[in-house]
TrEMBL record:
Name of the featured protein: Integrator complex subunit 7-like protein
Biological process according to GO: snRNA 3'-end processing
Species the sequence originates in: Noccaea caerulescens
Organism ancestry: Eukaryota, Viridiplantae, Streptophyta, Embryophyta, Tracheophyta
Source species, domain of life: Eukaryota
Membrane-traversing stretches: none
Domain Integrator complex subunit 7 N-terminal intervals: 65-234
Cellular component aspect of the GO annotation: integrator complex
A Pfam short name: INTS7_N
């Protein structure tokens, strides 16, 4: 029987760690992207059965430990890596996040980047928030994209919500567009968040100095709000 991803996770984690410690940014980027492809495949596989755990000499839930270790190493790479490394990490999380599209509520509760699967989610949020707090506008924009990809747990963290609100009124268009992406992601799991953002979007699209790309991004966010009773009344 071909090895399932859960049985390969430890090797993936070790390879990623070695590449990141090598201080070779090219090698680091290559390994990060390779790891991303493996995580995509892993996220498509069903949870291993007891028989599968036994077949590959795995302890039940051991795979969760390694998946969380890999995610945290990717976050550390984002925090301490250069621009190319940061972009590679964001690309990985974006690719995995896109696989959640089309899943029902039950499936989303246990998917790869769900709160139930990512046990060290608070640590991940804190480390990326530190990059946002200390970084330039580009670093802030990339951090916001990660928060959007982590909507299932980041949306519950009040400081992250505040960052999105403040970034929506930033003077840097890249940061604004990234905050709109994060906001649109949060809408899918938090209804009251959309109510707060609705008024901000209304003012944003009317602002004459807004860049066309940013205005278009803001308009597109409206379409992702849904139409709950509260939102309809507010509109």
């Amino acid at each position: 029987m071909e090895k399932v991803s859960a049985a390969c996770a430890m090797d993936w984690s070790i390879k990623l760690e070695k590449s990141l410690r090598s201080k070779n940014p090219v090698r680091a980027v290559e390994t990060i992207l390779e790891t991303g492809e493996k995580l995509e495949q892993w996220s498509k596989e069903p949870k291993p059965s007891i028989a599968v755990y036994s077949l590959f000499d795995l302890i039940p839930e051991e795979d969760r430990l390694f998946s969380n270790t890999i995610l945290l190493r990717l976050v550390d790479a984002f925090c301490f890596g250069d621009k190319l490394v940061k972009l590679a990490v964001v690309r990985v999380f974006m690719s995995v996040f896109k696989l959640s599209r089309g899943k029902n509520k039950s499936e989303c509760a246990t998917w790869f980047l769900s709160k139930a699967r990512v046990h060290n989610h608070l640590e991940m949020i804190k480390r990326v928030k530190n990059v946002y707090d200390k970084g330039d506008s580009e670093a802030k924009a990339l951090a916001l994209i990660l928060f959007g990809c982590w909507r299932d747990f980041a949306s519950e963290f009040a400081p992250v919500r505040y960052l999105i609100f403040t970034s929506m009124v930033s003077s840097h268009d890249l940061e604004v567009r990234s905050s709109l992406f994060a906001a649109a992601c949060f809408f899918e799991v938090v209804d009251d968040f959309a109510l707060v953002v609705l008024g901000m979007l209304n003012d944003m699209v009317k602002f004459p100095g807004l860049m066309p790309k940013t205005r278009l991004a803001a308009v597109r966010v409206f379409a992702k709000m849904g139409c709950s009773h509260a939102i309809a009344n507010r509109a």
